[in-house]
Design goal:
Mean pLDDT: 92
Strand content: 15-25%
Number of strands: 3
Number of domains: 1
Order of helices and strands: EHHEEH
Radius of gyration: 11 Å
Largest sheet: 3 strands, antiparallel
Low-confidence stretches: none
Amino acid sequence: MDNASFPNTGLVRLTSILAPKGPIPVSKSTWWQGVKDGRFPKPQKLGPRTTVWKAEDIRKLFEGCDNG
């Protein structure tokens, strides 16, 4: 995914975050372990089966990796 096409603001679902559609190249299980460990941003629950993250938090995560 081209990082320029990732939204700057708003809420995104996990399928938009993880590769191949998203900018973060990790598996679901690695992602959830990272959320639990505090390496990745905490999600927000919109409903019983809807989990989202702030696009700003995800953008900070992958832009910080590119700069380091």
